[in-house]
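Handoff note, outgoing to incoming analyst
You'll be picking up this chain. Sequence as last confirmed:
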Amino acid sequence: MIKRKVKYPVGVQSFEKIRTQGALYVDKTGIIAELIDNLNYAFLSRPRRFGKSLLLSTIEAYFLGKKHLFEGLEISQYEEDWEVYPVFHFDLSGTEANDPDKLEGYLNNQISQYEETYGVVSDMKYGSVGERFGWLIEKTSKSTGKGCVILVDEYDKGIQETIDNKPALEKNQQLLRPFFSQLKTKDQYIKFAIITGVARFKHYTLFSGANNLQDISFFPEYADICGVTLEELQKYFRQGILSLAEDYETDEEDITNRLLQKYDGYRFSRKDLHVFNPFSLLCAFSKNSLGEYWLLSGTSKVFIDFLQQANYDLSQIHDIWASETRLSSLFDTKDPVPLLFQTGYLTIAKYNRDLEEYLLKIPNGEVRGALFQDLAPMYLGIPATDGAKKARMLRSCLMKCDLVGFVKTLDSLIANVPYPIFDKESKENAYHLIVYCLCLAVGVDNRCEEPLADGRPDLVAFTEKYIYIIEFKLDQSAESAIKQIEDNGYARPYLADGRAVYRIGASFSSEERNIQRWLIQNPDGETIEILPK
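Most recent structure output, in case you need it:
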């Protein structure tokens, strides 16, 4: 008997298409029903490629009464009425939002289509987008006798794409503010509304007229409304896990652990619940390969533009404690943390109930790789593709304990560090940025400046068989780096681990902008010296 191949809906954002084509769907209808029952107006922020569009498509199908699409899903167990409501779905992701005229044209066209769908004869053909939208909501509700459902996806695109173009930004704000204000002024005609996006502009003036929106981005009960939990991975993707295990010549447990390290780790509330990036999971199972998919889906323009303007030591973006207010803030070049969190480069690691603050970290190996490729051109002076290749070589060397190869690759990686890095910043900051890039490049469950009782080593890298403790010294000897590892007992926590522990010291020259000398101490205490070419 031929086993039916699983259809993984990579890039498919239509709930109806997934269900009618028999593709895999992770059942989120129970939590969606809870959302609809409890709230009338909701705002949700999640990183890109996290299933926001599919969420809205599912909600749309529910309010359109498409009962047949929900057969066998959790919501079908208690939903009986399946009432049909008028639904207005605006997806801004496909618009040229950097051009205010085109954004306005899209909204007007959508409104015109809904006027035709619901038989609304408009007296507002030449009115503003906000006026037309308000008229549509009121007239449709009165003619159908039902409250309207409003879904807005990627609402922030018109802001993100014009953040560095003040005239266009102001035009988009003037266009969108009266549009969103209808959520309040036409409240009596609205059944339910939800707005999604990446950036947390909820408290922005864009919503000054729609202050009835409930921001559920940090609500524990909706922590997994987007994304895939470990339980869901094991329930829905077992066939894919077994297929990967066969291809990688390993077992189910090992592949699950690799998936956890590569794509898991996102957390969005004080609830200790982590989720996988759904897009990356689907790509991995569809291609039967543990690749780098999040970066291939497109780097956030706002993120790159911001990094180029910010005067911030990015090597400090670990062990950050931040309040919910800070994480919900508008970003600026003085504080990159809100943007890093909102775009998915940082996520919640712990929650301190006493201080009501969140500890942030980089979610997983895939994001570390993406962050390295974003930073490599700016701080190492190499194209992202070259950096990715060298990063793979570094990881391969560590996996095989080829430390000579590791050192040579590392030397070549930092050989092109641009002089302006040292000209603009202090030598210490430039050095930390380079070390941080190297931490990201290693990528094998590495912990940059792992916090220990007696201080912090610059880098601790873990593989299946080996642990590497690496200390860099700026304009000091490699011997002093090894001495610091020994004096502070950096290796002590790992000696009972069962893996071989290597201590590595390197002397970095700010004048030459490279590493002058390496000392490597093996588990037997023997030390070898490696000099650059």
